[in-house]
Amino acid sequence: MKILILGASGRTGKLILEEALHQDYKVNCLVREPKKIKKNHKNLKILKGSPEKISDIENAIKECKGIISALNISRKSDFPWSKLRTPPTFLSNVIKNIISLADKNGLERIVVCSAWGVGETEKEIPVWFRWFIKNSNIGVAYKDHERQENELKTSKLDWTIVRPTGLTNFKKEKKIIESYNNEPKPKLTISRHNVAKFMVNALKRDELIGQITVISD
After folding, report:
1. Where do the H-state alpha helices sit in the chain?
2. Cα 116 to Cα 145: distance, rounded to the nearest angstrom
3. pTM exceeds 0.70 for this model
4. N or C: which terminus of the chain has fewer CB atoms within 10 Å of its end residue's CB?
C-alpha cells in the first residue's frame, strides 16, 4: 500500500515516517523543505510543495490509497503567545483540498492527528490547560483542529481522528490507552513514538473507521 504522509518533517511526523517505512509502506512525503528529511529509502519519495496548494497535493497523492496527517498550526517558537508561521485556517484548508481530490484520485483512507481538548473533550482537560488554550495562540490550533474534524466528519472518506494527550519525547515502551467518551479516563501524556505507532497501525484497523479516539500512555 502506498501512502502520503503530511507533516513528515515535524517532531511527530518524522517518527510516523520511520514507522511507516519500518512496516514496509511505500511513502510519499510532501514538505516545503525536503532537506529536513534526512532519510534515504527505496520506498520513500520526497516531494517539495505545500499541502495548501491543491496542485501540489494532487501530485503527491498519485497512486496513494491512504494519508496520514501530522500537520499542525505552527508558531515561531514553543512560547504559547508566539506569532504564527502558518495561516490560522491551515489545517481546515488542507483537509478541504484532500476531500475535493479524493474521489478522482482513488483515495480511501485517512488518519489525522488532532488534539485532546478539541470539541467535546475540552471539558476533560485540566483547568490550567483550558486557560492557555483560551488565552494564547495555542487556541488557534485547537479551533482549526475542530474545523478540520468537522470537514472530515461530513466527507465520504474512511477517516480516523486521533486526539493525543500531552506529547512527550520518551522512547520507553508503554501500553497505549484508547479512550472513547472519556472511558477509560486518559492519562495526561503520551510519547510521540506511541502516537506514531498508533497512527500507522490505524490504517489497517477497520474498527477505527469513523472513530475519534483519545490516546495516552
Report:
1. 11-22, 54-60, 90-105, 127-135, 138-153, 192-202
2. 10
3. yes
4. N
Q: How many CB atoms neighbour CB 215 within 10 A?
A: 22
Give me the pLDDT at residue 171, please.
83
Q: What is the mean pLDDT of the chain?
A: 96
Cα–Cα distances in Å, from 162 out to 27, 55, 194? 20, 27, 12
Secondary structure (DSSP) of 111-161 = EEE--TTSGGGGGGS-HHHHHHHHHSTHHHHHHHHHHHHHHHHTSSSEEEE
C-alpha cell recorded at residue 27: 511513502
Peptide bond into 164 cis (omega under 30): no
Please provide residue 62's backbone torsions phi and psi, each rounded to the nearest 5 degrees: -55, 125
Q: Would you mind telling me the total number of residues written for the chain in this entry? A: 217
Helix crossing, 127-135 with 138-153: angle to 10°? Answer: 90
